[in-house]
Specification:
The protein is mainly alpha-helical. Helices cover 70% and strands 0% of the residues.
């Protein structure tokens, strides 16, 4: 939520609601806290970001390198680069990592790269990230009912 503080007053509420909804277990819970207008603004922002990424790519004539296979590989590589920031750190060092401005900046950069890759992949496949995310939340609600898994780290087939 620290990044939310840098956003303007009107956008701050939307950002908080988006973060809240991403952490909720169902679309129904999200709809109770975000109005249709705010939800539409979040979805519009995703589309706007995708358009910016496509323009960036097309201005450089890089589409020729962006097969679905290469985009999937890129997503994995960028996620691995995020993990690399945490490599060999103790649990105590991980707790304090955001207090180190260089490491925090590196995490932000790698997280942005992951998001960039995800947005580009979803754009190229025509997949609606919000819809597929909501679908996955519904699936996970079925796999991980609160009464069976609260406080547990087991996979659904081990419950």
């Amino acid at each position: 939520m620290q990044g939310v503080q840098k956003i303007g007053v009107g956008r701050r509420k939307i950002a908080r609601m988006a973060v809240f909804c991403l952490h909720r277990a169902s679309r129904e819970a999200c709809s109770k806290h975000v109005s249709g207008v705010e939800y539409r603004l979040i979805m519009d922002k995703i589309k706007e970001l995708q358009q910016k990424i496509v323009k960036f790519r097309d201005d450089r004539d890089w589409k020729q390198f962006h097969s679905l296979k290469n985009l999937a590989i890129d997503l994995s590589v960028e996620a691995s680069e995020l993990l690399e920031v945490f490599k060999w750190l103790s649990d105590e060092e991980v707790k304090n990592i955001l207090n180190n401005s260089k490491k925090k900046a590196k995490i932000e950069e790698e997280l942005a790269d992951v998001f960039w890759s995800l947005l580009l992949f979803s754009n190229e496949t025509g997949m609606d990230l919000v819809k597929i995310f909501e679908k996955k939340l519904k699936i996970n609600n079925g796999k991980y009912p609160i009464e069976k898994c609260k406080g547990m780290s087991k996979k659904h087939d081990e419950l």
